[in-house]
Write a structure and sequence with these properties.
- The structure is a single chain.
- This protein has 12 helices and 13 strands.
- The chain is α+β, with helices and mostly antiparallel strands and about 425 residues long.
- The protein folds into 2 domains: about 90 residues, no CATH class; about 300 residues, Nucleoside Triphosphate Pyrophosphohydrolase.
- The strands form 3 sheets. Strands 1, 2, 3, 7, 10, 11 and 12 form a 7-stranded mixed β-sheet that branches. A 3-stranded mixed β-sheet has the order 4-6-5.
- Helix 1 runs antiparallel to helix 3 and helix 11 packs across helix 12.
- The longest helix has about 40 residues.
Length: about 425
């Protein structure tokens, strides 16, 4: 994971490092100051008692304790006194600095460093190449599935006239190589969702497209016009225009066990996208079948969640309560145009709490057959470990590009925004720096 630069005008890495030093010093002083002062004073009194037994006058005592000429040991007296003065005098100074360094400014600086530089100009929550398009007004709660309104347009997406010939040429050329004889229908969004506190319902405007159109857009259009990616991201994030590029609306789900552990999975090297990358936790595309069998609205979302958990993890509906599943955000997933194929997709970040613990989930994943085997390994992280994975500049795992974004929202969902700020800074203070 790469440590990215800050947006101009936001606190710098120097600010973060100074702030972390001050926070650490304040914590250490609060915990150890008087114990350390007592220890140093005790050493001084021990020396004084020792020298009093040999000194006949105050002048003799002064020379025995403080004069360093011909008595190098007396430097220890000055060191002990300096230690006491520094500990007592430094405390109010550090306390003043600590009060002036707010959690809000520190958290702002840290979160801005998590964004990819290409997304730094947008005032939206983002991590790596994922940026929020619509965040639930209550991010520690999320949208219930019944609070989402799907408005589906049954018309098919079509490229502009000037692009259709190139698309058909691409489709014919890769018909067998990319198995386009099974060119499935995908569901895409047509508008950037708008959410306000007084109108909290999440409205998803959708229509149908073809998977071959998504591939053509990613493999050909984005690479033939390198500026296209930036223009589309700008339009989508700002909501100035309708969404006009074909994509595969996906669920990027964080699965949490009953004993508060987050499932992470290592994608198979044979998967088309991000093989051997760790995911937090699973991904699943929205399908036309979900719309048909779920009869749209919350029924379609329930069918989507049920299908994803059954196909990916082998979990039936006794393992979770659907009413506790929450949509935390709608976000844009992107990648650098130098990557072939590039990725530009719109996703839902979904939080799925289970009614089984990690031991039981482990047994299910190891023993029961599953419809899909998109991951070859799995593990569990507690929330402290999740913060470390989020804030580490370099980690032991290679993550799917949206995993750290999901980690961030899962932490906010768990602790709320204010307590999350304190917790993430507490972990960073202990040495887990971004």
């Amino acid at each position: 994971m790469v440590c990215h630069g800050l947006q101009p005008g936001t606190p710098s890495i120097v600010y973060i490092r100074v702030g972390i030093f001050v926070f650490k010093a304040h914590r250490l002083l609060a915990k150890y100051k008087w114990g350390s002062v007592s220890f140093l004073v005790g050493l001084l009194l021990g020396r004084l008692t020792n020298e009093l037994s040999n000194a006949e006058t105050l002048s003799d005592l002064w020379k025995a304790m403080f004069v360093v000429k011909n008595r190098p040991l007396n430097w220890s007296t000055w060191v002990l006194i300096a230690g006491v003065v520094i500990l007592i005098g430094l405390s109010p100074v550090i306390g003043l600095l600590r009060r002036r360094l707010s959690y809000q400014n520190m958290l702002l600086a840290i979160l801005e460093r998590l964004k990819h530089p290409s997304l730094a100009k947008y005032n939206a929550l983002g991590v790596d190449n994922a940026i929020t398009l619509a965040l639930c007004p209550e991010p520690d709660r999320g949208w219930m599935l019944s609070e989402v309104d799907i408005r589906h347009d049954t018309s098919q997406f079509e490229f502009p006239v000037g692009v259709r010939d190139a698309y058909m040429e691409y489709k014919n050329k890769h018909y067998y190589e990319k198995k386009l004889m099974d060119d499935r229908t995908v569901i895409m969004l047509t508008q950037t969702p708008r959410v306000f506190t007084d109108t909290p319902t999440l409205v998803l405007n959708t229509k149908e497209a073809r998977f071959s159109q998504v591939l053509f857009f990613r493999e050909r259009m984005l690479h033939e016009d390198p500026s296209l990616l930036g223009r589309i991201i700008d339009d989508v994030v700002t909501g100035r225009q309708n969404i006009t590029f074909p994509h595969d609306l996906s669920m990027h789900a964080v699965v949490v066990t009953k004993d508060d552990y987050i499932l992470i999975t290592k994608r198979s090297p044979r998967t088309e996208w991000y093989g051997d990358h760790w995911s937090c936790s699973i991904e699943e595309s929205f399908s036309y079948r979900d719309l048909e069998e779920g009869r749209r609205g919350s029924g379609a979302l329930r069918h989507w969640v049920t299908r994803a958990l059954w196909e990916e993890l082998g979990l039936d509906e006794e393992s979770y309560v659907m009413e506790n599943v929450r949509i935390l955000s709608v976000f844009l997933e992107s990648s650098d145009v130098s990557r072939v194929p590039s990725v530009l997709n719109i996703c839902l970040c979904v939080h799925v709490p289970l009614d089984i613990d990690r031991q039981e989930l482990s047994k299910i994943l190891r023993v029961l057959p599953r419809r899909d085997y998109e991951f070859t390994e799995f593990d569990f992280l507690d929330y402290d470990e999740l913060v470390k994975e989020l804030t580490h500049a370099t980690g032991t795992r290679l993550y799917h590009p949206t995993s750290r974004y999901r980690m961030l929202l899962a932490l906010i969902r768990k602790y709320g925004e204010a307590d999350f700020a304190r917790r993430i800074l507490s972990v960073i203070e202990r040495g887990h720096l971004i």
